């Protein structure tokens, strides 16, 4: 350890400086949590009770919803190639609507509903992925177009008016608590652990970092990058659809654009969390921090009676600032 | 009187020195040759003069004044124009649009005067390519035509100093003559030219004096007005005496070629109609020589499965290979150390561990769950075997030196025990010590039975380690050199297909390979 | 030297497949829409296509310069909302409304040009962030749809000049005139140069960031026109009114043969692309499909068009 440090110092200036920049990755997460604490302190000052345990749990509960859908976004961004998924919101809506109609308030169909939601999400996501990988459609355009298709599918499926509702078991997951902690938050913690293990300790997880960093090197190493990319978008679709089902678990009933407001925040959460928009770098715990920060921020804005318009502006400005700080394109 | 004088120019990129000490004096109305091997710093140097790269240190005097050139625009204002190899043409625009780009003639109201632009373009382009229409889009032109458009455009701006970066690379003999005629015309008008080329005869023909770069330094200058045009002197300056590679003993040929490892037939490269055909014995090291860009890299990329190999018949270890994807090649044990290690060989932002274990992940040689400890031990073993410094699997590869990075690119394949190792100019930008270690490793692998196909732009490297060298020209194998033939002159002659090479037909060369 | 003529010219410019698609959609449209060739139907079709035509031209300028404008829809929205919120019946308030709306749109364009050109942020995401800001501003100005739009807008837009010249056609002509002017200036060539190969353009002494800023500002002129037309059509302010334009303009641009890599294609291609999308919407409408299917089918057609339009470029790449 000390030897490594000595070597770092021995390296000439620029190298050491660059290494410093890399470590901001983890520092970003730290900064995000510090900001969360600041927000809660400020909130407590402005509106007493903001930092109470129950409100913190509420914020975490909503963060879990954003965090789960942001996982879908993160995988796509991590996979590189200007990867981004603008259909996560629409896909979440579709997942919620599908689950709502299939369950219709009864637990009997829970497993089939999960299966259908996963499959539909994966299939639609994979179509986006195939368009991106094989036909070289830019991810942003492809997923934006796919978002409108997904909205159309939801519209046709529901005839414009989603029916049904969450089943008791699903609702218990969404609003119930275990030992004072929301079940959704517990689920989120479990998911975070699984994702961390997946990314660092499994073959596809590690391969994903390669794909995101350098497609050509990955291809030359023997990975079928097109198949892999397609699968990543498929996974993103499946996860956002399941995320939509979690939205349903929280709200009880679905509506057609239940997920659409999540699209922009997922991107911001991912960027706050230190995932490079160029792909290939970052981890899920950063995204988790990003989701919590964004939800806390949104929560305090609501407490301050700022409307949807103001929040959109705040989101936009934050995203621009984040890009300006670490999203600049290199000069060719 | 000097038009340009540059002293002790220096440039480092993130710890890697591209130019240590660049010096040059260029006389008015003369042609100055700039010579040096690839990576010797001559292109960095010329980019500094033309404002593309800003020097970290050093002084430039131009036209009697001390100047700082911080952008191409500024260089242009001084009257310095550089013709890059393929940098400044916009493919979707026509010849005339390209030729006036940045200094379009306009009418009084600021409207474009396209008729005048066309006329200007026609005047200058006709000096090089009288038949070429200025209305053609640049993307539809041949490489040589593009080069002419590029040069004509520079000349049209009436520079005081014209820098030509390997302008003759895509040109044929007759076209080179045309270019030289224009250069002489420019000289007569008092324009100075810096001429960069690898071809000695061109340098001897057109240049009035030469400056030689090696390893980022100016190592010498010869003024042809006072000194004689001594090719040997120039060659020894370019190559230097510091490449202490132990020459491979020529006798390996007989023993190694007993067993056939790789057979390649009917592999068509580029536009070449005659496909290439060759074979590789087990443990044999075969070089690919010739001028740059004669299809060597395409050959390697085709064998790596990245480029379609068409109807080629490729047999590895007696088994017919279908190469639809690099995966097929890697699985069969034919692996590539690509020419551009940053773009094609490494995950720069990641640590050595990921880089070194990646091929195993790629072809699923590991289980679904990874044992970090086992993989780390394996990576450490590779690091030890190749002597990668620092010996730390957690080191991010972008902070390694070029030589150590290249070792990582080679090392990542070792766990797959490759049957054929394809190397594309592996020593480019690698320091001498690391180069030796790299080639020692290659030789070691060859002794253990791995066949090696090596492309190197430096003849010395080929001579030092290859059992034989195939010379490529325009996508064909035109000659084969055995260790007994190895000499700088034979290589140059064979590469340029000059007299000595022409009397040995490719067929004969092939026959000798058997 | 070979002089190129008529059809050959079209083939050269890569507009041939688009023209073919155009003829097909017009034919299908004519078959489905009653009285397709009557002047009234012609005029109403034209009036409904015009906003997308203008917006697609704006998108085309940005894409040709190597960028993309994800904020186009929300910029249009902001323009209309500003007008609807400030205008009354008095000429003064109308002038103020229009001036403020133009100012807002230009500010958005300048912000885009600055972030993309000078800060070198990736256009695709930074304009998307700007889009959120525009949407937020629109919501702040007008949380609920409403506002007041003088009837003179609607009346003027639906009228014809001298009984034969629909106003919408005049608007399109005006937009083309703007572009015609740009074509005569240096910036026109620089847009193609920067979009085609940024580093080469830079090496030629072109200030690439100024060109990018200029492209976004030229687009502003067309976006402001679009905004005027949209408000004349809808006669109301609504923060969600322009949402669909972003995707539709990108689709029009791609169908119109403009490469999303930049530097390749023509603004007229985008005009044709916009018409094609307009006719497709018409076809879906007159095919008597349930309105629920419209989004779905349109999205699918756009995806199909995107992939088909990108295919030739791919094939060429494979041979290179």
From TrEMBL, chain A:
Topological relation to the membrane, as annotated: Multi-pass membrane protein
Lineage of the organism: Bacteria, Bacillati, Bacillota, Bacilli, Bacillales
Annotated compartments: Cell membrane
InterPro entries per record: ABC_transp_permease
Keyword Cell membrane part of the UniProt annotation: yes
Residues that span the membrane, as ranges: 29-53, 59-79, 86-104, 110-133, 140-160, 180-199, 231-250, 262-281, 288-306, 312-328
Molecular function via GO: transmembrane transporter activity
Pfam families tied to this protein: BPD_transp_2 (PF02653)
Principal localisation: membrane
Keywords: Cell inner membrane, Cell membrane, Membrane, Transmembrane, Transmembrane helix, Transport
Protein name as catalogued: ABC transporter permease
Top-rank taxon, per record: Bacteria
Chain coiled-coil ranges: none
Keyword Coiled coil: no
Gene Ontology CC annotation, any one: plasma membrane
UniProtKB/TrEMBL annotation, chain B:
Keywords: ATP-binding, Nucleotide-binding, Repeat, Transport
CDD domains: ABC_Carb_Monos_I, ABC_Carb_Monos_II
Keyword Repeat set for record: yes
Pfam families according to UniProt: ABC_tran
Domain ABC transporter intervals: 4-240, 256-499
Example GO molecular function: ATP binding
Protein name: Sugar ABC transporter ATP-binding protein
Organism: Cohnella ginsengisoli
Lineage: Bacteria, Bacillati, Bacillota, Bacilli, Bacillales
UniProtKB/TrEMBL annotation, chain C:
Primary localization: membrane
InterPro entries in the cross-refs: ABC_transp_permease
Membrane topology qualifier: Multi-pass membrane protein
Subcellular location: Cell membrane
Keyword Transmembrane helix included in the entry's annotation: yes
Keywords assigned by UniProt, alphabetized: Cell membrane, Membrane, Transmembrane, Transmembrane helix
Record-level GO cellular component terms: plasma membrane
Domain of life: Bacteria
Membrane spanning stretches: 12-32, 44-65, 72-88, 94-114, 121-141, 161-182, 213-232, 244-260, 267-290, 296-314
GO molecular function: transmembrane transporter activity
Pfam families in the record: BPD_transp_2
Cross-referenced PANTHER family: ABC TRANSPORTER PERMEASE PROTEIN YPHD-RELATED-RELATED (PTHR32196)
UniProt name for this protein: ABC transporter permease
The species this protein was found in: Cohnella ginsengisoli
